[in-house]
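Narrative of accomplishments. A recurring question from our advisory board has been how the design workflow behaves on a single, concrete structure rather than in aggregate. To address it, we present the structure tokens for one chain from the evaluation set, followed by the sequence designed for it. No filtering or post-editing was applied between the two.
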């Protein structure tokens, strides 16, 4: 891995937290369903919805498509916005079946897959890229609110950075490796939950020497400590 602030941030977080083993799921479809259901909610709620689907023997693309709408809404209700998500989930499952007969999803170029996912109503870049990275094992860096917050506080990007601009910034500074992108994104989420919250907990933060938010206490080092 090359030098520079982005690889050093990864190395610092990995040393602090270790491997994260994301994304929980017994099949690519389950991971894709989880990526969609996690919109505007936390993972605990998604786990409850997925458990409902499993208990009803419904974690199958064909069965989700054929499921009566009210029943599907009831099953995924814990994930919130269940009426909207039921329709999105059925559209995603139709997409899944149409392109995976047989193994078509594995053969499709990443750029085409991403374009097709984004064409589905209710699926934005973060959800599409989560499906690509975690369900289909494509080297696509997922950008979320945690990623934006951390890199803005480090002074490496702007707080309101465009999704594609931030994705290009990170991807261009790392090897195009699925496992690396998977691990890095998971580490950023872990770091944001433990330290880089909306009201940050700077004490004990492994990135504190490089953080603009912690600059007054650390002597204004900002990102220089990581950039060398």
């Amino acid at each position: 891995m090359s030098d520079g602030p982005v690889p050093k941030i990864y190395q610092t977080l990995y040393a602090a937290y270790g491997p994260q083993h994301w994304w929980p799921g017994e099949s690519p479809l389950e991971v894709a369903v989880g990526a969609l259901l996690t919109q505007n909610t936390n993972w605990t709620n998604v786990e409850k919805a997925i458990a409902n689907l499993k208990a009803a023997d419904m974690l199958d693309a064909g069965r989700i498509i054929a499921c009566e709408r009210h029943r599907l809404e009831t099953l995924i209700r814990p994930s919130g916005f269940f009426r909207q998500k039921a329709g999105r989930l059925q559209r995603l499952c139709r997409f899944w079946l149409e392109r995976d007969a047989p193994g078509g999803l594995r053969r499709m170029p990443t750029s085409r897959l991403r374009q097709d996912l984004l064409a589905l109503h209710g699926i934005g870049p973060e959800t599409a890229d989560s499906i690509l990275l975690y369900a289909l094992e494509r080297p696509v860096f997922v950008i979320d609110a945690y990623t934006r917050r951390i890199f803005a506080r480090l002074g490496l990007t702007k707080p309101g950075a465009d999704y594609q601009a931030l994705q290009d910034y990170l991807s261009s500074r790392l090897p195009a490796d699925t496992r690396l992108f998977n691990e890095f994104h998971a580490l950023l989420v872990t770091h944001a939950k433990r330290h880089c919250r909306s009201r940050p907990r700077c004490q004990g933060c492994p990135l504190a020497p490089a953080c603009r938010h912690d600059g007054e206490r650390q002597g204004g080092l900002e990102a220089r400590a990581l950039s060398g």
